[in-house]
Write a structure and sequence with these properties.
This protein is globular. The longest helix has 29 residues. With 372 residues, it is α/β, with parallel strands linked by helices. The chain has a single domain, classed as Metallo-beta-lactamase, Chain A (4-Layer Sandwich). The relative contact order is 0.15. It is built from eight helices and 15 strands.
Length: 372
């Protein structure tokens, strides 16, 4: 009798585990926040400059996302103390005034944290990589939580942009809830190849979406041109399947040029961008979430400085830091290392608080607000 009871308990445990695995699998397959995979034949037809082979996109030079034999070491790091990886108090910020500007007014941008930037150029409003949910995750109760800040701007507090520019499909750059709740009626989504399918599943009309290959340039409106340029990264919302492309961007106005790096490891594409399109009045370049075990897909702060010099940036605003705990460095290490190296190399930079407007023609705030 005792033996039968043990067998029954074991069967219940096994069936429960199998049921849980089935539910998890169905969640990953069916949940809308994971988007949709693009048609491989369509990607093969559209990709001319980006490398597309064996049903996936590839970097210009073959690099691993993670160094070999690094996962055990990563697990050990994850178990260590998280002291310093999140700020101890509210991050300072201001609530921006989003009054429209004229077509001939100087371009201005406001950093809203991580890689989300609101930009006004040629009288057109542009938003990059919108991520306004509390977590950079497909699950509302699990995943990297955004750092709390003073006057954190929400979509309801800003005008709906004319254009949304997306660099790639990771959760800290493309947030399903943000798009679904606020931006399905945006006039234009400018996206790398393959990302149309995600947006269409979330209710965005395909007529509002323009997909870009690397080096593809399109005139949009207001005298603006958008150019998708290479980056060295990867993509995937369920796994690292590289089914969609990743890129950086050039926003080209009548008299001003702005560069937006998206996510990228350091490579020679920065020099090529500089030769083809430089100089840039202002460059928004990633500076954070780096680590010794993934050196090819995110830059060290010193490499951020070199990338800015390579693209011939006249001034840099470091982004992709100060919002999520995505790596094992302290939350403010990226900006400390960046400003130190930029000072050594003679690179002009600006370090606004979130919500603080920066005009491309100046003045350029330089304040060590992270030390407060």
């Amino acid at each position: 009798m005792k033996r039968k009871k043990i067998v029954r308990v074991l069967l219940i445990i096994i069936i429960s585990i199998l049921g849980l695995l089935l539910i998890i699998n169905l969640f990953f397959l069916l949940a809308p926040q994971f988007g949709s995979k693009p048609d491989k034949e369509r990607m093969e037809y559209l990709a001319r400059e980006a490398v597309y082979a064996q049903g996936k996109f590839h970097n210009a030079r073959p690099v691993p996302v993670m160094l070999p034999k690094s996962y055990v070491k990563l697990a050990r790091l994850a178990l260590k103390s998280k002291k310093g990886r999140t700020p101890g108090k509210l991050l300072p910020g201001v609530q921006p005034d989003f009054s429209p500007i004229g077509k001939d007014s100087p371009a201005r941008i406001v950093w809203l944290g991580h890689s989300t930037v609101y930009m006004q150029i040629c009288g057109v409003n542009i938003l990059t990589d919108p991520a306004f949910s509390k977590r950079a995750s497909p699950i509302g109760f699990f995943g990297p939580h955004s750092f709390p800040g003073e006057h954190a701007t929400k979509p309801a507090q800003m005008p709906v942009p004319d254009i949304i520019v997306l660099s790639h499909d990771h959760f800290d750059h493309l947030d399903h809830k943000t798009v679904k709740d606020h931006y399905t009626e945006v006039r234009l989504f400018a996206v790398p190849l393959g990302m149309r399918d995600h947006l269409e599943r979330w209710g965005v009309d395909s007529a509002r979406i323009t997909e870009f290959d690397w080096w593809q340039e399109e005139k949009v409106f207001g005298g603006l041109s958008l150019i998708a340029t290479p980056a060295q990264h990867f993509s995937g919302r369920r796994k690292q399947d590289n089914s969609t492309l990743w890129c950086s961007w050039i926003i080209k106005g009548k008299n001003e040029q702005i560069y937006f790096s998206g996510d990228s490891g350091f490579a020679d594409h920065f020099g090529e961008i500089g030769e083809r399109y430089g100089p840039f009045d202002l460059a928004l370049v990633e500076c954070g979430a780096y680590g010794q075990y993934w050196p090819h897909i995110h830059m060290l702060p010193e490499e951020t400085v070199q990338a800015a010099l390579d693209i011939k940036a006249e001034r840099v605003l470091p982004i992709h830091w100060g919002k999520y705990n995505l790596a094992f460095h302290s939350w403010k290490e990226p900006i400390e290392r960046f400003t130190r190296e930029a000072g050594k190399r003679g690179l002009d930079f600006t370090t606004p608080k979130t919500g603080q407007w920066v005009y491309v023609s100046g003045p350029f705030p330089q304040q060590n607000w992270w030390e407060e």
